[in-house]
What we know:
The structure holds two protein chains of two kinds. By secondary structure, chain A is mainly α. Chain A contains ten helices and no strands.
Amino acid sequence: MKSAKKTTRWLTVLFTMFTILMLTQHAQAHIVAGDVAGGFLAGMKHPWSGWDHICAMVAVGLWGAQLGMPAIWILPVTFPVIMSIGGFLGLIGVKLPGGQKGDELGIALSAVLLGLMVLLKARPPLWAAMILVGFFGLCHGWAHGHEMPPDQSALLYSIGFVIATGTLHGVGITIGLLNDEWKDRAWAPILGTLLLGFMLGLGLADGMGVSGWNYWGHVAIGFALASAILMFVVVKAQLGEKVIRALGAAITLGGCCFLYQAFTAEEQPATKPTTVAIMPVRTPPLFDVNGI
Amino acid sequence: MRQLRYVLLVVLALLVMQRSAQAHLVTTGLGPVYDGIGHFSIAPDDSIPVVALALFAGLRGKRAGRGVMFQLPLAWFCGGVAGLMAHREPFDPLRCVSFLVLGVLVAADLPLPDLAVMALGVAMGFMHGFLDGAGFQAAGLGKGMLQLLGISAILFVLTPLVSALVVSIRTYWVRIVMRVAGSWIAAIGLLMLGWALRLKHY
């Protein structure tokens, strides 16, 4: 009874804080508001904006969790590092064998093969898993680099981009660990719910094609709905091994669809920058007395 | 307890009804030292490599952490003074190097000797300080020395805090999280470098 009261109290506080956050007005005092928000958020959204990327990155996390230590952290480290090498190559205009089509095939194959690894709970040597994950990281990175929008702050875009990629791996790892090592920890469902809820919220907002404040409103609605459902599933039903494998199967099936799409798609030209902000605007010190 | 609830309700109501603040520092000003602190705080291209260096120093132990605490602010200040006197436009893509090198070092948890860690701190501090100083000079701002002093002051506080935190943590998982963070920083650096070279390609 006492703990129920405590939970209710915490939920009330959280709900109130969330309401306040949603009701706040635009801050008027930002110095480089457009640049900072645009670059970071655009980078954050990029890896989440395509299911082919989402499936592969979540699969890396899931597979890492299945393999256990040290693969659980080495694979999700390998992926973003090699992905950034791919992004670097894409940015400077190096062509991969097969060009954009070859890369799209690589991305689609990543979902198929990584999904299969999860489905079959494959246990290759660590170096082999690293090579597989690294190769696909290169394909994903090249595509990101090739498509990176011009006129963004490189630093902030990259920060958002890498954090979003890491979060997707985190989602996979969390689902994997919730099933196994963390199932008795009190905070595990909360962590899983937060990550998955955020992901589904973003998916909903993107799917609805909304923008601005409306976008974040949809993220919030998706977050709340997903949290409620996931809390029930994770806590009450306990994710089982079969569910994890089913996720692997779903990713593989999704990969097959991406593969078909990659075969039939037309090649797109690279985004050509007009002006590129290498760094965030190097503002003079914020509060310069002399300038006022 | 009930009174507290009322107070909380009133506070929340006030928060909801808030309007844009009129008293921002941009209109009042707190002087060049705080300008420097503010500048560092909103410049992730400066603050992220500093955090990476502090993480690396912490991973290497107390002695490296202590050394970096003194050498980094000093080198930053000296570099800044050199930058102020150089009268050159800052070449910002150089900062990618700090991201890359420090990110890789943290990710690999490379057992470098303390002296090497300190040398790294001096080199990084001098380079970033130089770029900051040259930036201030190019922007035509006065009192650059005091702004650099502000940056050095915040470095002196931030670096030991992060390093000490890392030294005090013995949990295996937390050290892994730090290494993962290092890999992210290296990835950011590489993407920034690609972005910088992108202009030349087109």
